[in-house]
Specification:
Layout lengths: L4 E3 L13 E7 H4 L2 E3 L8 E6 L5 H7 L5 E6 L10 H4 L3 E5 L8 H13 L2 H16 L3 E6 L4 E6 L6 E5 L8 E3 L4 E5 L14 E7 L4 E3 L7 H11 L7 E6 L2 E7 L7 H13 L6 E7 L23 E6 L8 E6 L3 E3 L5 E4 L10 E2 L7
Parallel strand pairs: 1-3, 2-4, 2-5, 5-6, 6-10, 9-21
Antiparallel strand pairs: 7-8, 7-19, 8-12, 9-11, 11-16, 12-14, 13-18, 14-15, 16-17, 17-18, 19-20
Length: 362
């Protein structure tokens, strides 16, 4: 029998100065295989075993104390953010593990990553990045190895910049492990294929692809097939051309013909549904105390290597059949003075940014 998953509330620095109970929400099928270590600082701990139809909002109303720090780990469910009124003063961290086939040992690993997460260091890194944004009109994403450059304009007044990092305050929701900055053309809870980021140039994709399938288990086989078609990306780069925020072409990276199959699979997907063409999210993983799991694992999205990692998202479930995330670990984000703000290598205008109103999790 596999050893139990161990949840250690005292190690989770997102929940600074704990108040009330610590509550783990997990699936009924997983609950018997989880133990909670004594939560120093909390007034006890409990495990809420959720049934398949239970939403987090329902559980908050019926089974979770009003004064609680809540960790949600539900690999068998697509978790959506509850309304702020339902959250109340609780602090909620959600491990986004329901839209990809996350395995038990992946959960064990990411629980250990959660213990290593330093919210203060992540907030400081994010502040440095935002300071660079506020001084720039345009950012460039540069991959020196492939010779690609893509410019992001920052003048759109509707641009949404969301942060998933830092210590949780009462009433806040956040992903776990935390460590992501995301740039979107509209609020994170919506989708409109006609809305675009001011993104032009070429981007180099290289790393473990992520194929989300929402909560529809009927898509498991198709999800796995698409992931395997894109799998060469973990070794071989694909270059995409982006024009006015939409992907218009893709090709194998220079010197990497083995990426041809992945480039063709991506091209076929783009042709099958125009909803995949907008670069819906330009993201930046800033968790620097983790590795990627070698699998189709949504928890890889916050991967930040040593100095942050660019990633981008195409599509959004349920508006598209799948949602795809591509890592760009060889790219650097540079400002107009060629200063590296994040990624590979090394008097302020205000940029509107928000802490995401919910975890936006799967």
């Amino acid at each position: 029998m596999a050893p139990p998953l161990v949840v250690r509330p005292a190690a989770y620095r997102q929940f600074a100065a704990p108040k009330g109970a610590f509550c783990l929400v997990t699936d009924e099928a997983l609950a018997h295989g989880v133990v909670i270590e004594e939560p120093h600082g909390h007034d006890g701990a409990l495990i809420v075993a959720a049934r398949s139809g239970d939403t987090l909002q329902d559980l908050l109303a019926t089974r979770i104390p009003e004064a609680a720090d809540v960790l949600v780990v539900r690999p068998g469910a697509f978790v959506t953010s509850p309304a702020p009124a339902a959250v109340g003063s609780r602090r909620i961290a959600v491990m986004p593990c329901g839209s990809t086939p996350v395995e038990r040992e992946h959960l064990r690993y990411f629980l250990s990553v959660l213990e290593r997460t330093d919210p203060d260091a992540q907030a400081a890194r994010a502040d440095r990045f935002f300071a660079g944004l506020e001084q720039a009109d345009t950012l460039r994403i540069v991959d020196a190895a492939q010779g690609t450059t893509c410019a992001l304009g920052l003048d759109d007044p509707d641009l949404e910049i969301n942060l998933q990092a830092g210590v949780l305050a009462p009433g806040e929701q956040q992903i776990a492990p935390s460590g992501e900055i995301s740039v979107l053309p509209m609020p994170i809870t919506g989708f409109d294929a006609d809305r675009r980021l001011a993104l032009d140039g070429e981007l180099t994709l290289r790393g473990w692809p992520i194929v989300h399938a929402g909560y529809d288990r009927a898509l498991d086989a198709a999800q796995d097939a698409l992931f395997r078609q894109l799998l060469p990306l973990h070794r071989h780069p694909v270059v995409i051309t982006v024009t006015a925020g939409a992907v218009t072409a893709c090709r194998p990276g220079t010197g990497h013909p083995a990426a041809a199959a992945a480039a063709k699979a991506l091209e076929t997907l783009l042709d099958s549904d125009a909803g995949y063409r907008p670069v819906w999210e330009l993201g930046f993983g800033i968790h620097t105390e983790m590795d990627t799991v070698p699998a189709n694992c949504g928890l890889n999205e916050v991967y930040g290597a040593a100095n942050g990692v660019v990633h981008l998202g195409l599509g959004l479930t349920p508006f598209t059949r799948f949602a795809l995330t591509f890592l760009c670990p060889g790219s650097a984000v540079v400002d107009g003075a060629d200063r590296v703000l994040l990624g590979a290598g090394g008097a302020r205008r205000r940029i509107r940014r928000t802490n995401a109103p919910g975890c936006g999790c799967h």
